[in-house]
Automatic annotation (TrEMBL):
UniProt entry tagged with the keyword Lipid biosynthesis: no
Compartment(s): Cytoplasm
Record organism: Sphingomonas lutea
Record family assignment: Belongs to the methylthiotransferase family. MiaB subfamily.
One Gene Ontology cellular component annotation held by this UniProt entry: cytosol
Protein's name according to its UniProt entry: tRNA-2-methylthio-N(6)-dimethylallyladenosine synthase
Needed co-factor(s): [4Fe-4S] cluster
Amino acid sequence: MTPRTYRIKSFGCQMNVYDGERMGELLNAQGMAEAADGADADLVVLNTCHIREKAAEKAYSDVGRLRREDGSRPLIALAGCVAQAEGAEAQRRSPMIDLVVGPQAYHRLPEMVAQVARGGRPVDTDMPAISKFDAMPARRRSGPSAFLTVQEGCDKFCTYCVVPYTRGAEISRPWDDIVTEARALVDAGAREIVLLGQNVNAWADGARGLADLIRALDAISGLERIRYTTSHPTDMDDGLIAAHGEVAKLMPYLHLPVQSGSDRVLKAMNRSHSAESYLATIARVRAARPDIAISGDFIVGFPGETEADFEDTLRIVDDVRYASAYSFKYSPRPGTPAASMEDQIAPEIMDDRLQRLQRRLAEHSTAFNRRCIGKDTRILIDRVGRKPGQMIGKSPWLQSVFVETAAPIGAMVDVHLTEALPNSLGGVALAQAAAA
Ligand code: 5AD
Ligand code: SF4
Protein backbone atom coordinates (compact mmCIF):
# COMPACT_ATOMS: atom_id res chain seq x y z
CA MET A 1 0.00 0.00 0.00
CA THR A 2 1.27 3.47 -0.82
CA PRO A 3 1.14 5.63 2.30
CA ARG A 4 -0.88 8.84 2.18
CA THR A 5 -0.13 10.32 5.57
CA TYR A 6 3.08 10.49 7.57
CA ARG A 7 4.40 11.46 10.97
CA ILE A 8 8.02 12.33 11.68
CA LYS A 9 9.39 12.04 15.20
CA SER A 10 12.72 13.77 15.61
CA PHE A 11 14.94 13.21 18.63
CA GLY A 12 18.18 14.86 19.64
CA CYS A 13 19.83 17.94 18.23
CA GLN A 14 18.54 20.82 16.13
CA MET A 15 20.09 19.31 13.03
CA ASN A 16 17.75 16.39 13.43
CA VAL A 17 14.83 18.79 13.76
CA TYR A 18 15.95 20.42 10.52
CA ASP A 19 16.35 17.04 8.81
CA GLY A 20 12.88 16.07 10.01
CA GLU A 21 11.39 19.22 8.48
CA ARG A 22 13.14 18.55 5.18
CA MET A 23 11.95 14.94 5.09
CA GLY A 24 8.43 16.24 5.62
CA GLU A 25 8.80 18.61 2.70
CA LEU A 26 10.08 15.76 0.52
CA LEU A 27 7.05 13.64 1.40
CA ASN A 28 4.71 16.60 0.81
CA ALA A 29 6.22 16.99 -2.64
CA GLN A 30 5.16 13.37 -3.28
CA GLY A 31 1.56 14.25 -2.47
CA MET A 32 1.62 12.86 1.07
CA ALA A 33 0.31 14.89 4.01
CA GLU A 34 1.29 15.09 7.65
CA ALA A 35 -1.14 13.06 9.76
CA ALA A 36 -3.50 15.13 11.88
CA ASP A 37 -2.84 15.27 15.64
CA GLY A 38 -4.05 12.09 17.28
CA ALA A 39 -4.71 10.33 13.96
CA ASP A 40 -2.82 7.21 12.87
CA ALA A 41 -0.22 7.85 10.18
CA ASP A 42 0.40 5.43 7.30
CA LEU A 43 4.15 6.08 7.55
CA VAL A 44 6.12 6.86 10.72
CA VAL A 45 9.68 8.13 10.45
CA LEU A 46 11.74 7.78 13.64
CA ASN A 47 14.51 10.32 13.23
CA THR A 48 16.86 9.04 15.92
CA CYS A 49 19.77 10.40 17.94
CA HIS A 50 22.82 8.35 18.96
CA ILE A 51 24.73 10.82 21.09
CA ARG A 52 24.08 9.47 24.59
CA GLU A 53 22.67 6.66 26.71
CA LYS A 54 20.95 3.64 25.32
CA ALA A 55 20.11 5.25 22.01
CA ALA A 56 19.68 2.09 19.96
CA GLU A 57 17.62 0.33 22.65
CA LYS A 58 15.36 3.36 22.92
CA ALA A 59 14.86 3.40 19.16
CA TYR A 60 13.89 -0.30 19.10
CA SER A 61 11.42 0.17 21.93
CA ASP A 62 9.96 3.20 20.13
CA VAL A 63 9.52 0.98 17.07
CA GLY A 64 7.78 -1.69 19.16
CA ARG A 65 5.32 0.87 20.49
CA LEU A 66 4.13 1.69 16.98
CA ARG A 67 2.11 -1.53 16.89
CA ARG A 68 -1.56 -0.56 17.16
CA GLU A 69 -4.16 -2.17 19.41
CA ASP A 70 -5.72 -4.04 16.50
CA GLY A 71 -2.32 -5.56 15.68
CA SER A 72 -1.75 -3.47 12.57
CA ARG A 73 1.13 -1.03 12.26
CA PRO A 74 2.29 1.84 10.04
CA LEU A 75 5.08 1.59 7.56
CA ILE A 76 8.18 2.30 9.68
CA ALA A 77 11.29 4.16 8.60
CA LEU A 78 14.31 4.30 10.89
CA ALA A 79 16.23 7.49 10.13
CA GLY A 80 18.92 9.59 11.81
CA CYS A 81 22.09 8.61 13.61
CA VAL A 82 20.94 5.28 15.08
CA ALA A 83 19.96 4.25 11.54
CA GLN A 84 23.43 5.22 10.37
CA ALA A 85 25.13 3.29 13.17
CA GLU A 86 22.95 0.16 12.97
CA GLY A 87 22.43 -0.11 9.20
CA ALA A 88 20.98 -3.42 8.04
CA GLU A 89 21.40 -4.83 11.56
CA ALA A 90 18.36 -2.73 12.51
CA GLN A 91 16.04 -4.90 10.41
CA ARG A 92 17.52 -8.08 11.83
CA ARG A 93 16.85 -6.84 15.37
CA SER A 94 13.41 -5.48 14.57
CA PRO A 95 11.53 -6.94 11.60
CA MET A 96 8.98 -4.12 11.98
CA ILE A 97 11.49 -1.67 10.48
CA ASP A 98 10.65 -1.43 6.78
CA LEU A 99 13.45 0.87 5.74
CA VAL A 100 16.66 2.29 7.17
CA VAL A 101 17.96 5.64 5.99
CA GLY A 102 21.02 7.51 7.28
CA PRO A 103 21.32 11.28 7.73
CA GLN A 104 23.22 11.74 4.47
CA ALA A 105 20.82 9.71 2.34
CA TYR A 106 17.35 10.89 3.28
CA HIS A 107 16.77 12.63 -0.04
CA ARG A 108 16.07 9.06 -1.18
CA LEU A 109 13.27 8.57 1.37
CA PRO A 110 10.33 8.87 -1.10
CA GLU A 111 11.93 6.38 -3.47
CA MET A 112 12.64 4.00 -0.59
CA VAL A 113 9.03 4.25 0.61
CA ALA A 114 7.93 3.28 -2.90
CA GLN A 115 10.28 0.29 -2.76
CA VAL A 116 8.66 -0.85 0.49
CA ALA A 117 5.24 -0.55 -1.14
CA ARG A 118 6.56 -3.00 -3.76
CA GLY A 119 7.70 -5.44 -1.06
CA GLY A 120 11.30 -4.26 -0.62
CA ARG A 121 13.21 -3.60 2.61
CA PRO A 122 15.72 -0.94 1.55
CA VAL A 123 18.71 0.23 3.59
CA ASP A 124 20.76 3.29 2.63
CA THR A 125 23.51 4.53 4.92
CA ASP A 126 25.76 5.81 2.16
CA MET A 127 27.44 9.16 2.43
CA PRO A 128 27.30 10.15 -1.23
CA ALA A 129 29.53 12.85 -2.67
CA ILE A 130 26.59 14.67 -4.22
CA SER A 131 24.71 16.69 -1.72
CA LYS A 132 21.31 15.51 -0.53
CA PHE A 133 20.37 19.18 -0.41
CA ASP A 134 20.40 19.34 -4.21
CA ALA A 135 17.54 16.86 -4.30
CA MET A 136 15.39 18.83 -1.89
CA PRO A 137 12.32 20.92 -2.79
CA ALA A 138 12.41 24.68 -2.14
CA ARG A 139 11.35 25.93 1.29
CA ARG A 140 7.73 27.10 1.33
CA ARG A 141 6.70 27.16 4.96
CA SER A 142 8.41 28.53 8.00
CA GLY A 143 7.71 29.57 11.57
CA PRO A 144 9.19 32.80 12.94
CA SER A 145 12.49 31.05 13.69
CA ALA A 146 13.93 28.71 11.07
CA PHE A 147 16.81 26.27 11.15
CA LEU A 148 19.14 26.19 8.17
CA THR A 149 21.85 23.53 8.04
CA VAL A 150 25.01 24.95 6.47
CA GLN A 151 27.58 22.42 7.59
CA GLU A 152 27.51 18.80 8.60
CA GLY A 153 29.83 16.25 10.02
CA CYS A 154 32.92 16.56 12.14
CA ASP A 155 36.64 15.94 11.74
CA LYS A 156 37.55 16.70 15.33
CA PHE A 157 37.22 13.17 16.74
CA CYS A 158 36.71 13.98 20.38
CA THR A 159 37.34 10.60 21.98
CA TYR A 160 33.84 10.29 23.53
CA CYS A 161 31.81 11.29 20.47
CA VAL A 162 30.02 9.28 17.77
CA VAL A 163 29.31 12.22 15.49
CA PRO A 164 32.37 11.80 13.24
CA TYR A 165 31.13 8.23 12.60
CA THR A 166 27.40 8.86 12.23
CA ARG A 167 27.48 12.17 10.37
CA GLY A 168 30.76 11.66 8.55
CA ALA A 169 33.48 14.10 7.59
CA GLU A 170 32.98 17.86 7.75
CA ILE A 171 31.27 19.24 4.67
CA SER A 172 30.08 22.77 4.02
CA ARG A 173 27.12 23.58 1.79
CA PRO A 174 27.91 26.07 -0.98
CA TRP A 175 27.39 29.80 -0.41
CA ASP A 176 24.76 30.30 -3.13
CA ASP A 177 22.59 27.40 -1.93
CA ILE A 178 22.54 28.75 1.60
CA VAL A 179 21.73 32.33 0.58
CA THR A 180 18.95 31.06 -1.71
CA GLU A 181 17.48 28.92 1.06
CA ALA A 182 17.72 31.81 3.54
CA ARG A 183 15.81 34.11 1.17
CA ALA A 184 13.15 31.44 0.62
CA LEU A 185 12.76 31.01 4.38
CA VAL A 186 12.32 34.76 4.88
CA ASP A 187 9.76 34.84 2.05
CA ALA A 188 8.01 31.96 3.82
CA GLY A 189 7.74 33.94 7.05
CA ALA A 190 10.99 33.43 8.95
CA ARG A 191 12.13 36.45 11.00
CA GLU A 192 15.09 34.60 12.48
CA ILE A 193 17.49 32.12 10.91
CA VAL A 194 19.58 29.75 12.98
CA LEU A 195 22.55 28.47 11.01
CA LEU A 196 23.24 24.88 12.00
CA GLY A 197 26.25 22.64 11.87
CA GLN A 198 28.04 20.16 14.13
CA ASN A 199 30.97 22.55 13.73
CA VAL A 200 29.15 25.48 12.24
CA ASN A 201 32.02 27.89 12.74
CA ALA A 202 34.22 25.68 10.55
CA TRP A 203 31.87 26.47 7.63
CA ALA A 204 33.81 27.61 4.58
CA ASP A 205 33.29 28.08 0.85
CA GLY A 206 36.65 28.86 -0.71
CA ALA A 207 38.11 31.80 1.15
CA ARG A 208 34.76 32.77 2.66
CA GLY A 209 33.97 31.81 6.24
CA LEU A 210 30.96 31.90 8.53
CA ALA A 211 31.44 35.60 9.31
CA ASP A 212 31.12 36.44 5.59
CA LEU A 213 27.97 34.34 5.35
CA ILE A 214 26.48 36.09 8.38
CA ARG A 215 27.22 39.47 6.80
CA ALA A 216 25.51 38.36 3.58
CA LEU A 217 22.39 37.25 5.48
CA ASP A 218 22.45 40.55 7.39
CA ALA A 219 21.63 42.22 4.04
CA ILE A 220 18.39 40.22 3.53
CA SER A 221 15.53 42.59 4.20
CA GLY A 222 12.76 41.12 6.31
CA LEU A 223 15.24 39.01 8.23
CA GLU A 224 15.59 40.35 11.78
CA ARG A 225 17.87 37.94 13.55
CA ILE A 226 20.74 35.56 12.90
CA ARG A 227 22.06 32.87 15.21
CA TYR A 228 24.41 29.94 14.74
CA THR A 229 25.16 26.71 16.59
CA THR A 230 27.19 24.62 17.52
CA SER A 231 30.69 26.03 17.51
CA HIS A 232 34.06 24.58 18.39
CA PRO A 233 36.42 26.74 20.46
CA THR A 234 39.35 26.30 18.09
CA ASP A 235 37.32 27.56 15.10
CA MET A 236 36.33 30.90 16.69
CA ASP A 237 38.30 33.11 14.32
CA ASP A 238 38.85 36.88 14.47
CA GLY A 239 36.35 37.60 11.72
CA LEU A 240 33.53 35.78 13.50
CA ILE A 241 34.36 37.44 16.81
CA ALA A 242 34.40 40.86 15.10
CA ALA A 243 31.00 40.12 13.53
CA HIS A 244 29.55 39.85 17.03
CA GLY A 245 30.44 43.49 17.58
CA GLU A 246 29.46 44.73 14.15
CA VAL A 247 26.50 42.85 12.68
CA ALA A 248 23.32 44.20 14.22
CA LYS A 249 21.21 41.17 13.31
CA LEU A 250 23.67 38.72 14.88
CA MET A 251 22.20 37.97 18.29
CA PRO A 252 24.33 38.28 21.45
CA TYR A 253 24.41 34.57 22.20
CA LEU A 254 27.18 32.06 21.73
CA HIS A 255 26.98 28.34 22.38
CA LEU A 256 30.59 27.30 22.87
CA PRO A 257 30.98 23.88 24.49
CA VAL A 258 34.02 23.38 26.72
CA GLN A 259 33.11 19.90 28.10
CA SER A 260 35.58 20.08 31.01
CA GLY A 261 37.69 22.64 32.86
CA SER A 262 40.58 20.24 33.41
CA ASP A 263 43.44 20.31 30.91
CA ARG A 264 44.23 16.69 31.68
CA VAL A 265 40.66 15.65 30.80
CA LEU A 266 40.51 17.95 27.77
CA LYS A 267 43.65 16.27 26.47
CA ALA A 268 42.18 12.79 27.00
CA MET A 269 39.06 14.01 25.22
CA ASN A 270 41.22 15.17 22.29
CA ARG A 271 39.62 18.60 22.49
CA SER A 272 42.61 20.51 21.05
CA HIS A 273 42.08 23.45 23.40
CA SER A 274 42.98 24.12 27.02
CA ALA A 275 40.90 25.75 29.73
CA GLU A 276 43.07 28.83 29.39
CA SER A 277 42.78 29.11 25.59
CA TYR A 278 39.01 28.68 25.91
CA LEU A 279 38.84 31.47 28.50
CA ALA A 280 40.96 33.68 26.23
CA THR A 281 38.47 33.11 23.40
CA ILE A 282 35.55 34.01 25.68
CA ALA A 283 37.38 37.19 26.72
CA ARG A 284 37.82 38.22 23.07
CA VAL A 285 34.16 37.55 22.31
CA ARG A 286 33.13 39.61 25.33
CA ALA A 287 35.40 42.45 24.29
CA ALA A 288 33.56 42.53 20.94
CA ARG A 289 30.09 42.15 22.47
CA PRO A 290 30.03 42.83 26.23
CA ASP A 291 26.42 41.72 26.84
CA ILE A 292 26.79 38.37 25.04
CA ALA A 293 25.14 35.34 26.67
CA ILE A 294 27.54 32.40 26.76
CA SER A 295 26.19 28.89 26.75
CA GLY A 296 28.10 25.63 26.98
CA ASP A 297 28.07 21.83 27.07
CA PHE A 298 29.68 19.78 29.84
CA ILE A 299 30.44 16.13 30.36
CA VAL A 300 31.01 14.82 33.88
CA GLY A 301 32.58 11.47 34.67
CA PHE A 302 34.77 11.14 31.61
CA PRO A 303 37.09 8.12 32.15
CA GLY A 304 39.82 9.03 34.65
CA GLU A 305 38.14 12.25 35.83
CA THR A 306 39.24 12.90 39.45
CA GLU A 307 37.57 15.10 42.05
CA ALA A 308 40.29 17.69 41.34
CA ASP A 309 39.51 17.57 37.60
CA PHE A 310 35.84 18.04 38.37
CA GLU A 311 36.63 21.03 40.58
CA ASP A 312 38.46 22.56 37.62
CA THR A 313 35.18 22.27 35.73
CA LEU A 314 33.32 24.10 38.53
CA ARG A 315 36.05 26.75 38.40
CA ILE A 316 35.65 27.37 34.67
CA VAL A 317 31.88 27.62 35.18
CA ASP A 318 32.50 30.37 37.75
CA ASP A 319 35.00 32.10 35.47
CA VAL A 320 32.69 32.16 32.45
CA ARG A 321 29.40 32.78 34.31
CA TYR A 322 27.34 30.88 31.74
CA ALA A 323 23.91 32.24 30.91
CA SER A 324 22.76 28.70 30.11
CA ALA A 325 24.28 25.27 29.69
CA TYR A 326 23.69 21.62 28.96
CA SER A 327 25.41 19.03 31.12
CA PHE A 328 25.61 15.30 30.70
CA LYS A 329 26.97 12.20 32.37
CA TYR A 330 29.60 10.58 30.22
CA SER A 331 28.08 7.75 28.21
CA PRO A 332 30.39 5.23 26.52
CA ARG A 333 29.58 5.12 22.81
CA PRO A 334 30.38 1.90 20.95
CA GLY A 335 33.38 2.30 18.67
CA THR A 336 34.74 5.49 20.27
CA PRO A 337 38.22 5.51 21.87
CA ALA A 338 36.96 6.64 25.29
CA ALA A 339 34.63 3.63 25.56
CA SER A 340 37.65 1.34 26.00
CA MET A 341 39.65 3.64 28.29
CA GLU A 342 40.49 2.44 31.79
CA ASP A 343 39.11 4.11 34.86
CA GLN A 344 35.47 4.36 33.83
CA ILE A 345 33.74 6.37 36.55
CA ALA A 346 31.15 4.80 38.87
CA PRO A 347 27.53 5.87 38.27
CA GLU A 348 27.12 7.24 41.85
CA ILE A 349 30.09 9.53 41.36
CA MET A 350 28.72 10.71 38.03
CA ASP A 351 25.32 11.40 39.59
CA ASP A 352 26.89 13.39 42.40
CA ARG A 353 29.06 15.46 40.07
CA LEU A 354 26.22 16.13 37.66
CA GLN A 355 24.05 17.39 40.51
CA ARG A 356 26.76 19.67 41.84
CA LEU A 357 27.53 20.99 38.37
CA GLN A 358 23.88 21.63 37.56
CA ARG A 359 23.38 23.47 40.83
CA ARG A 360 26.32 25.74 40.03
CA LEU A 361 25.14 26.31 36.45
CA ALA A 362 21.65 27.17 37.70
CA GLU A 363 23.09 29.81 40.05
CA HIS A 364 24.81 31.47 37.12
CA SER A 365 21.82 31.36 34.80
CA THR A 366 19.57 32.80 37.51
CA ALA A 367 22.11 35.57 38.11
CA PHE A 368 22.27 36.25 34.37
CA ASN A 369 18.48 36.49 34.17
CA ARG A 370 18.38 38.82 37.19
CA ARG A 371 20.91 41.14 35.57
CA CYS A 372 18.48 41.55 32.66
CA ILE A 373 15.76 43.07 34.84
CA GLY A 374 15.25 46.76 34.07
CA LYS A 375 16.53 46.45 30.50
CA ASP A 376 14.48 47.48 27.48
CA THR A 377 14.83 44.99 24.67
CA ARG A 378 13.04 43.46 21.71
CA ILE A 379 11.54 39.99 21.60
CA LEU A 380 10.42 37.76 18.75
CA ILE A 381 7.00 36.33 19.57
CA ASP A 382 7.00 32.58 18.95
CA ARG A 383 4.23 31.10 21.11
CA VAL A 384 0.88 31.80 22.72
CA GLY A 385 1.08 31.92 26.52
CA ARG A 386 -1.20 30.02 28.88
CA LYS A 387 -2.88 33.04 30.41
CA PRO A 388 -5.42 35.02 28.36
CA GLY A 389 -3.72 37.76 26.34
CA GLN A 390 -0.28 36.39 27.14
CA MET A 391 2.33 35.75 24.46
CA ILE A 392 5.84 34.32 24.74
CA GLY A 393 8.84 35.52 22.76
CA LYS A 394 12.59 35.12 22.71
CA SER A 395 14.96 37.77 23.94
CA PRO A 396 18.20 38.45 22.06
CA TRP A 397 19.90 36.31 24.77
CA LEU A 398 17.51 33.43 24.01
CA GLN A 399 15.48 33.62 27.20
CA SER A 400 11.73 33.09 26.93
CA VAL A 401 9.92 36.28 27.85
CA PHE A 402 6.26 36.31 28.96
CA VAL A 403 4.36 39.43 28.02
CA GLU A 404 0.78 40.65 27.63
CA THR A 405 0.32 41.83 24.08
CA ALA A 406 -2.03 41.62 21.14
CA ALA A 407 0.95 41.12 18.81
CA PRO A 408 0.79 37.86 16.84
CA ILE A 409 3.34 35.06 16.50
CA GLY A 410 6.18 36.34 14.33
CA ALA A 411 5.97 39.94 15.58
CA MET A 412 8.90 41.81 17.09
CA VAL A 413 7.78 43.53 20.28
CA ASP A 414 9.69 46.06 22.39
CA VAL A 415 9.51 45.15 26.05
CA HIS A 416 10.71 46.32 29.42
CA LEU A 417 12.02 43.34 31.40
CA THR A 418 10.51 43.32 34.87
CA GLU A 419 10.84 39.88 36.40
CA ALA A 420 13.24 36.92 36.48
CA LEU A 421 11.55 33.54 36.77
CA PRO A 422 13.59 30.30 37.15
CA ASN A 423 13.86 29.62 33.41
CA SER A 424 12.39 32.71 31.81
CA LEU A 425 11.65 36.41 32.18
CA GLY A 426 8.55 38.51 32.56
CA GLY A 427 8.18 41.79 30.71
CA VAL A 428 5.80 44.59 29.82
CA ALA A 429 5.24 45.59 26.20
CA LEU A 430 6.68 49.06 25.79
CA ALA A 431 3.85 50.64 23.80
CA GLN A 432 1.56 49.37 26.56
CA ALA A 433 3.94 50.56 29.27
CA ALA A 434 3.93 54.04 27.73
CA ALA A 435 0.12 54.10 27.50
CA ALA A 436 -0.39 52.90 31.08
N1 5AD B 1 28.58 11.15 26.60
C1 5AD B 1 28.04 12.24 27.19
N2 5AD B 1 27.84 13.40 26.53
C2 5AD B 1 28.21 13.46 25.23
N3 5AD B 1 28.15 14.45 24.34
C3 5AD B 1 28.64 14.00 23.17
N4 5AD B 1 29.04 12.73 23.29
C4 5AD B 1 28.79 12.36 24.57
C5 5AD B 1 28.98 11.17 25.31
N5 5AD B 1 29.52 10.08 24.76
C6 5AD B 1 27.66 15.79 24.66
C7 5AD B 1 28.75 16.84 24.49
C8 5AD B 1 28.36 17.54 23.23
C9 5AD B 1 26.84 17.42 23.29
C10 5AD B 1 26.14 17.61 22.00
O1 5AD B 1 26.62 16.12 23.77
O2 5AD B 1 28.69 17.72 25.59
O3 5AD B 1 28.79 18.88 23.16
FE1 SF4 C 1 31.62 15.39 18.65
FE2 SF4 C 1 33.85 16.77 19.30
FE3 SF4 C 1 32.91 16.81 16.76
FE4 SF4 C 1 31.55 18.08 18.70
S1 SF4 C 1 33.64 18.58 18.00
S2 SF4 C 1 30.67 16.74 17.11
S3 SF4 C 1 31.88 16.75 20.46
S4 SF4 C 1 33.71 15.02 17.85
